[in-house]
């Protein structure tokens, strides 16, 4: 079957999307919206239809939104075959087949990989398995942790003060719970917003009653004779009596099923070009394999072609739509994926929004408002790029939320 059609409406091959979450759903909708009439299959390892993950560490934990209200709306009928609750375990490039955990082999003409990420687990599996130890990434995670927080535990330990950990800590304080946050860096959010902004975040967290421990590592989680979490050991020598701990150590990209596929894959993600076409292990671009969302690494022209992996909601949507377009069109009609990364977070009465990548900067200046009033805009930049600020700067906006 020829795949080099000029008009996407006439493309009648089989498209398989592995990863039935935000990026996968939006790509499927974009394919149909652009006239794709062929067979469409979505594969997902969870038994649920696509749902929205950001609320899980915010409104779901607070009880304001039930997990049943996190399912993503389908903007149009995608007329797809859904294979849910079964993981992809392999990809055969020569035979154009996706291999599933139940033994099925799903053929494709074009493939889109949107397998995203999962929560990074606690390094000791036995300690992670203790009753009372949670991660927060899936719908089931959100439901279980919400039920435990509703019982009003005496204290909650949050391990990691990135966006997810900080949001969980914020919800705990909203619920009136005592919360200790252990962060091995010098400040919360430092990995995402830099050290200066992290110090501001630390001030806000402590002002809201968080027992914030920076430059501190959790050495061990200890259970009682019944397998329940009972105490934790910290690197500063403290031993805390805790029955609930939330592990928020970042994310792991879901690439294991692709390690022997012949694609350019590493723990950092699946490498692709600016049009979302995957590279093979020899650096050759493939016209029938595409990548989008958290699992993708692509060269961004505004950052000197550096391969970026952006784990944010907006990027998943935009990259999925770009991939869908490029799967259907002729080579001359391909569009590059090059939007500025944007992200946001609600925590401790603040709305934090950022455009660009603060982590590439080496200086930050407050350009509007004031930190003391909790409403300000900060600009990030690099000293060695003064002549091309459009490539190196970003803006972050912090504003208090009035409810």
Automatic annotation (TrEMBL):
The keyword Disulfide bond appears for this protein: no
User: Looking at the keywords, is Transport present?
Assistant: no
Which residues are in the Reductase C-terminal domain?
343-384
Q: Which Pfam families match?
A: Pyr_redox_2, Reductase_C
Task: Identify the cofactor(s).
Answer: FAD
A GO molecular function term, named singly, is:
oxidoreductase activity, acting on NAD(P)H
Its GO CC terms are: cytoplasm
Q: Which UniProt keywords apply?
A: FAD, Flavoprotein, Oxidoreductase
Read off the InterPro entries from this record. FAD-oxidoreductase/Apoptosis, FAD/NAD-bd_sf, FAD/NAD-binding_dom, FAD/NAD-linked_Rdtase_dimer_sf, Reductase_C
Name this polypeptide is given: Pyridine nucleotide-disulfide oxidoreductase
The gene coding this protein: hcaD
